[in-house]
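Ticket #4471: structure export looks truncated?
Reporter: QA, pipeline team
Priority: medium

Steps to reproduce: submit the single chain below to the structure queue and open the exported record.
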Amino acid sequence: MHSEKENILKSATKPIDENERLKALFEYEILDTESEKAFDDLTLLASEICETPISLISLVDPDRQWFKSKVGVDVDSTDRDIAFCSHAILQDDLFEVQNALKDERFFDNPLVTSDPNIRFYAGTPLVSPSGQKIGTLCVISDKPKKLTSSQKKALTILGREVISQLELRMNNKKLEIANNYKTEFLSNASHEIRTPLNAIIGLSGLILENKELKEKFAEQYDFIEQIDFSGKQLLNIINSILDLSKIEAGKMELEPVECHLLQYINNIFISLSGKAKAKLINYSKEYNFSQSEPAPELVIIDEPKLGQVLTNILGNAIKFTPANKSIKLTVSVNRNMLSITVTDEGVGISPEEQALLFNKYTQVGSNKTEGTGLGLSITKGLIDLMGGSINLKSELGKGTSVSFELPFEIPDVTSAMKKETSQLDLATLSKLSILVVEDNKVNQMVIIAMLKSLKVTANIVGSGEEALDDLKTHQYDVILMDINLPGIDGVETTQNIKALNIKSYILALTADVYRTSEDKKLFNNFLTKPILLDDLKDALLQAVAEISGNS
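Actual output as written to the record:
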């Protein structure tokens, strides 16, 4: 029997490093979060191994012990003053109470004298990498008990695993924050770089379209060609970096469209034939189809991503194949699976370098001065995203074979709206009424000049507010909407336009490649700056087709 004097609850003292301990606990940002399977599995395992009805991951904050995970109890926390875990965090090793009724520290504890009627307790401290004991992994029973040496060892190991999961959780959160910062930075960088490039590529392209200037100023025309080429090269480098970042951030989305497959592949093949010819390379293609597996005329696939993959692989083959050697493109299909192989007689790749091929920023071979080294990493990321696979075989000095497969679908019915835009008379564009919403003076000049070359006239305003005022008195078939506007941006402006039940076809203009799915639903279509004349023409023709289809 304990005397009346002894019958006083004995709360644990606070650790001498209490401030540092709490700082370590709060850094995990774990308190009062939802349950997580990784932690629940550990408490369940501790309960099974130690043969106890209760197991807890208990984190001790200034006033309470809070349970991140629990087996056998319903409450989420208890006061720190009565917590067994408050005593356990004062220990360096596992803390065990075999019979609480016989322990002067706990015999009159409310957790002993009432529910859950603790008799046995064993807790291993959860020690952060900095050495702070933030809580325990503990097991509890309503009957006296003693752990075996193997149970003690297992509980200690599981406690270390709790800390490992906390560290992993914290690092994942830091990585997510870092990725968000990177995405925001690249989004801003994309806009700031693409805006001047829009002027460089757009205006140089318009000049190159002018045959009279070419005849009168032949030497200067060559300079403009170099400006246009260099601008597009810079854009390719920027796109490579942004594409890789989008893939890593999970922001790259599939955009399947109806595609004339062989025609598209042939266009990509021809677009690179000039480079192959300049290097005196034997450049050929072969289609392997049969009566049972004929060439599909029209398929549904992400056409731009297919083009990027094929361009990267063919471009690499041309880059590393010397004069008088061969490159061959082979195309076949098998049960809605496109198979493409590019075989070259180039320099080949050593086994050591093959292991590095798909790594970011890693270039192999002797010619490491061209490009960013991102091509194959992006290629693999795009193929993975499209649900395909890629395989490479190479022998040093003999050549390389790169094969990839991509799934596609066959459209059931081709709608009238999907007919060839080339069948639409360009003269129909001149009948369009267009409003351009663009704040940048240089971009205004570029877009108006492009529209003029397409025989299209337009009104132009410099802000979302001006656009909404203009739409009170004017109707437009098409609105070219810059997204990054001062005041209310293009997204909010478009939301206001739709709220007014204005039915104009809204074509977004953006230098930011990190657009969201919600943005895509809001607009009828997108044009990414720098805007090319052919892309603008195609987008307006598509607008005409959709407007006609909806009328």
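Status: closed, not a bug. The export was complete when the record was re-opened. Leaving a note from the reviewer for reference: The chain has four domains: 18-147, 175-248, 257-407, 425-550.
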